[in-house]
Every structure is written in C-alpha cells, then in structure tokens.
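Support request from a user on the community tier.

User writes: "When I paste my structure tokens into the form, the page sometimes reloads and wipes my input. The last time it worked, I copied everything first. Here is what I submitted, just in case something in the input itself triggers the reload:"
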C-alpha cells in the first residue's frame, strides 16, 4: 500500500490542480483506444462516475460486487481479476480498505493504480480485529470509510480527476467541469449537515464503521461503537457494557446499517429503550452517479428528523 500511496503523492505534486495534467505517451494511447477505468468498490465507482459522466471513450467498471461490509477481508474472485484485464487505471479507496492489493500488483505490475484518499481528512479507527495491509505494529488505526464525509468525497473526486486528466489529457476540461459540478452539489449537502447543529455533548451509538464520519459532520459524539460483520461478533461482555453505557449516558439513538450490525442495535434498543435509526453507508446500490448525493442527503434528512 505504501508503494501506491507514494506514487499518488508524487503524481499529485506533478499535476497540481484538476484539469492541469501533463501529456504523456500513455495518455496518447488512451485517447486512441479509449480509456478503461476500473474502481475497487462501490463508493469509489460512484465518485468516478461523477467525474467521467458524459465523457466519450471512457468505459467505467466496478471490480468487486457491491456489499454493505468493508473490504478488509475480501477475497478476490476470478471474475474480479478478469475485470482488471485491459484496464488503463484502477482507483482504490486506500487507507487499508483494499486488503488484496498485493495480489493485484503482483499480477498486474504495470497497472496505473491511484489511491483516492490523498488529501482526505481521516478519523481514528477502532481496532476490532481487522489487520490492515501496510500497517506497522503499533501504528494508529485509521478509519478508512472516508467517503461518508462529503468533503472527503470531493477530495477523492479531485484525485480521480487529476489522474484521468493525466491519462487522457484531451478530455481534461470535461473531467474538471464534471468535478466542479459534483463539488458544487456537495456544498448543499455539507450545509444540510451543518444545519443539524446538534447540542454540544449529544451522544449516539453507531453500528457501522463509517458512521463516525457522518456523526462528526453533524456535531454528534460517538458514545458507543459496536462494529460487527459476518466473520466477527461482539462478545456478551461487550454487549452488556454497551447497554450499561447507553443507559448511563442517556443515549437515545442507535445508528445502524442494513447489515450484520443491525441485530445488535435492535438487541440493545430492546434492553435500553433507545431508538434504532437506519442509515445508508453507501456501499451497495445502483450503479448511478446520483446515488452518492441522494444517499448523503437522505442520511442527513433521517438524522435531522431523529434529532428533532
């Protein structure tokens, strides 16, 4: 992962701003044959779809199947690897989200791989058993679900724009215009989040790793975090401690996704009298560029109503 990150930082320094990429031989080849763009998973696909919208000659593909869980333990399939054949560029989320990158780089050593997390603001993670590729012992866990902050979504789109402008300089202006349009749409989303203006010290419990980005955006504090998946469940002790903390701190809202964490949220709601609020982590759905914006807007609307 460090190899990829170092490359992207170097690319960012060369490119400067979106739409100012320099021409190169790979870019000329891409213009002649069209550009095949692959994304590692669903939220990165949505961001790339906004940047590439309406640009002729660009084929956008998503490699992994949309899923509600993260990719830390994802096993690449033969079909996933076939998707990379003929790809001109692979965009990944980064920050250890894609634990399979050693295999990808080993099989496709010349593939142009771009880590879209460059420049994003990150939150500390919660180490609950996931081993993130590229992390050293004792290194602070980072929450890789950066796309759930729309400001980070804009940063990721800008990284995508810069890389595509380098690979396909003939369409640099189109990528830049699309990215500017996307950034403008996120301004209203950010304003919607800021309008929530939760009372200082308002705590919630979260049951998906990505939701701290949403709560931080809205001024909410995470009092309890239970992060479960199909391979890992909270212990009875963890559940009992969470129930006690929810009661003691007067936590009223339990934020969960439609995934493995939902049943634990519902169990704790029954024990504590708190209310379960279902939010969308934007990790599955239609392959439509507008899903990102609509998903963020709906999440914020749900939070606004739950807090009122």
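"...and here is what came back when it finally went through:"
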């Amino acid at each position: 992962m460090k190899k990829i990150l170092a490359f992207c930082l170097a690319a960012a320094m060369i490119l400067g701003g979106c739409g100012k990429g320099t021409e190169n031989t790979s870019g000329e080849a891409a213009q002649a044959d069209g550009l095949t763009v692959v994304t590692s998973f669903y939220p990165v696909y949505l961001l790339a779809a906004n940047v590439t919208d309406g640009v002729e000659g660009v084929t956008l593909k998503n490699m992994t199947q949309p899923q509600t869980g993260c990719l830390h333990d994802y096993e690449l399939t033969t079909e996933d690897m076939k998707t990379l054949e003929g790809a001109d560029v692979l965009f990944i989320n980064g920050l250890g989200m894609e634990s399979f990158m050693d295999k990808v780089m080993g099989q496709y050593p010349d593939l142009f791989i771009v880590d879209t997390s460059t420049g994003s603001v990150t939150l500390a993670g919660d180490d609950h058993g996931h081993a993130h590729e590229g992390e050293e012992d004792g290194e602070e866990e980072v929450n890789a679900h950066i796309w759930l902050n729309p400001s980070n979504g804009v940063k990721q789109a800008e990284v995508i724009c810069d890389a595509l402008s380098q690979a396909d300089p003939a369409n640099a202006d189109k990528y830049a215009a699309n990215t500017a349009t996307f950034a403008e749409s996120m301004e209203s989303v950010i304003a919607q989040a800021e309008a929530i203006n939760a009372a200082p010290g308002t705590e919630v419990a979260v049951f998906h790793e990505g939701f701290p980005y949403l709560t931080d955006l809205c001024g909410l504090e995470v009092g309890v975090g239970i992060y479960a998946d199909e391979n890992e469940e909270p212990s009875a002790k963890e559940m009992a401690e969470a129930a006690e903390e929810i009661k003691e701190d007067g936590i009223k809202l339990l934020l969960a996704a439609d995934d493995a964490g939902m049943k634990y949220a519902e169990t704790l709601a029954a024990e504590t009298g708190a209310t379960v609020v279902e939010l969308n982590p934007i990790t599955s759905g239609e392959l439509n560029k507008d899903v990102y914006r609509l998903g963020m807007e709906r999440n914020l609307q749900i939070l606004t109503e739950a807090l009122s």
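Agent notes: The reload is a front-end session timeout and is unrelated to the input. The beta strands are 35-39, 58-62, 89-92, 112-115, 123-124, 142-143, 203-206, 221-225, 253-256, 275-278. The first strand starts at residue 35 and ends at 39. Escalated to web team.
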